[in-house]
Amino acid sequence: MEVQVSSQELVQDNRLLRCIQCGKCTGGCPVSTTSGLNVRQLLNEALLQPNLVFSPEGSELWQCTTCLTCSLRCPKGIKPLDVIIQIRGQLIESGRIQPTMRDALESVFLHGNPWGKPREKRTDWAADLQVKTAGVDAQLDLVYYVGCAAAYDPRVQKLAKAMVRVLGEAGVKFGLLGNEESCCGNEVRRMGEVGLFEELVESNCQLFKERGVRRLLTTSPHCFNVFKNEYSGFGGEICHYTQILWELIEEQRLSFSKELNWRVTYHDPCFLGKQNGIFDEPRWILEKIPGLELVEMDRNRERSLCCEGGGGRMWIEALIPQERLAEVRVKDAVDLEAEVLVTACPFCLLTLEDAVKATGNEERLRVLDLIEIVEAAI
Q1: Among 65, 129, 158, which residue's Cα sits nearest to residue 370?
Q2: 65, 93, 121: which is the final residue of a domain?
Q3: Of these four, 25, 179, 201, 323, which has the most CB atoms within 10 Å of its CB?
Q4: pTM, rounded to two decimals
Q5: Same domain, residue pair 273 and 361
Q6: Tell me: the pLDDT tens digits for 318-339?
């Protein structure tokens, strides 16, 4: 059964009458060349037709990675991404969505994470580490918000462990939220489940208040983005870990004693770079590591190519194009003869590692998160 979406509501809510059909949204869209998603056409149809008709499970709207390029490039200040999220919300309300999406959202509601894992196992990764709990020790410098991927995914758990060791090496007094930590809701909102997102905002802000959180550090740029830009009611400072690491380096609390003779290139995560303007800190950190040679891919900083891990795509069975964007990214790194492809995002890490395997470049290229390189160099 197809779902009808009122175009009048979309036009009014998103000021679509300002659209001049210049096509910059589609021209900048990273997935427009590999999928049926055409943002300019979507906006045009909303302006010309009373209703838009979608097939919920197979809609091209689920191809969107919510990288924000379309909104950033619009000369009239329209936010096509908000249009897509609004339509997704109505598709979710129809009840006919992919089982993987349904299960992820239900798991967030029941267990506080989209991975289908029990809440009581959220801190199992830290069982062999001496980590304090926020709210128990009042002398904490900051609270480390681990995030769902770093709490439950075996590969990403290595980043959380590295973070604990690096912060400890720098003498930072920090703690965790423990098993009461819940999903930040960034992907929940971008999949269109606004009601669940609002519940997460309320419960998380209450938890932060109860634990006396004044400064919050995140593993993921996705968590950083939603806390910084879309939460209301939390007056504390939000930091991505790359910002904290650079701060520690400048204060001479963190230094590097080991030489890493690697040729590396850095992939800018969309939610850290183009959405929040954090381009320099990761590069400054890499340049401080002895022996490391940093080379840049052509598409870097604001022009960085999306890895396709955002927007709920981790739980959406999207149509597989002939070549994924993450595979293009890997080939870009291989062409530079880089030995290591560095990023600072759990989702980017997972998609890029899969792309290395898919392209048969396991012997030529490794994918590491920046925190792993920092740990190896101290």
Answers
A1: 158
A2: 93
A3: 25
A4: 0.94
A5: yes
A6: 666 667 899 999 999 999 999 9
